[in-house]
Amino acid sequence: MIGQTGRMQNTQADKSGDPTAVLGRRLIAWVLDNLIIATLFTVILLSGAESRQVPVDVESSDACAELFGTEEGCIVIGDEAWQVDVGLGATHVLVPTLAFLANQILLTSFTGFSLGKAVTGLRVVRRSDGGLPGLTGAAGRTLPWMIPTVLGLLAPVMVVIEMGLTATSTGHRRLGDRIGGTLVVDRSMTGATPVVPGLDTPGRPT
């Protein structure tokens, strides 16, 4: 039985008969998830940064080399030079990455939601039967977001591809959903085999 709250949240899907017609909330969830990671990254980055006063007789362009012996990870702001660790093993890189994986893979595999999806009332489900995605499904749908982490130049391209597929494909399946065999639906539809118009025949996922 679907409660009153569930009915209100599922209005968008009911109008079209498409359980995946939750694009607005899905976008908000994506923004929230990324905002959490960005905030964590910023806090750790700033707390670990080292700053030194630039001597009056040193040019800004020479301050990093003069004060830190390198220009890597160094920037001059006003009369202060700031340096951060730019290695992949740096705390401000490692911790947010682990937090991202925990949110998108571990939490999603066991609950069906990331923190952003929990707030917006969405769930990630297996396309075959509407159950929890499990580690395989959650990891599969996260894989495309990890490619830009390894090959940073592909990040803008991957975002465009994933957003484009989410907005235009039947079932609103981005590349990650296709790899993981998942769909994103309203939380009230968890456990029910999803039937997407144009994608599935009732009772027989294709």
Q: How does the overall form come out from the CA principal axes?
A: elongated
- Rounded mean pLDDT is 85
- Gyration radius, to the nearest Å? 22 Å
Number of helices: 9
Biggest sheet record:
3 strands, antiparallel
How far the N terminus sits from the C terminus, by CA atoms, comes to 27 Å
Q: What is the number of beta strands?
A: 5
> What is the strand arrangement across the widest sheet?
1-3-2
The portion of residues forming beta strands comes to: 5-15%
Describe the overall structure.
The chain is mainly α and 206 residues long. Among the domains are: 25-33 and 102-189, no CATH class; 50-83, no CATH class. The chain has 9 helices and 5 strands; from the N terminus they run αααβαββααβαααβ. The strands form 2 sheets. Strands 1-3-2 form a 3-stranded antiparallel beta sheet, with helices on one face. β2 and β3 form a beta hairpin. The radius of gyration is 22 Å and the shape is elongated. The model is unreliable at 1-13 (pLDDT under 50).
Which features would summarize this protein structure in a list?
mainly alpha, 206 residues, 3-stranded antiparallel beta sheet, 54% helix, two-stranded antiparallel ribbon, disordered N terminus
What would a concise description of this structure say?
Helices cover 54% and strands 11% of the residues. The protein has 206 residues and is mainly α. A hairpin with a 2-residue loop joins strand 2 (74-77) and strand 3.
Topology:
Elements: H1 4-9, H2 11-16, H3 23-48, E1 50-53, H4 60-68, E2 74-77, E3 80-83, H5 91-111, H6 115-120, E4 122-126, H7 134-150, H8 155-168, H9 175-180, E5 182-186
Antiparallel strand pairs: 1-3, 2-3, 4-5
Helix pairs in contact: 3-5, 5-7, 7-8
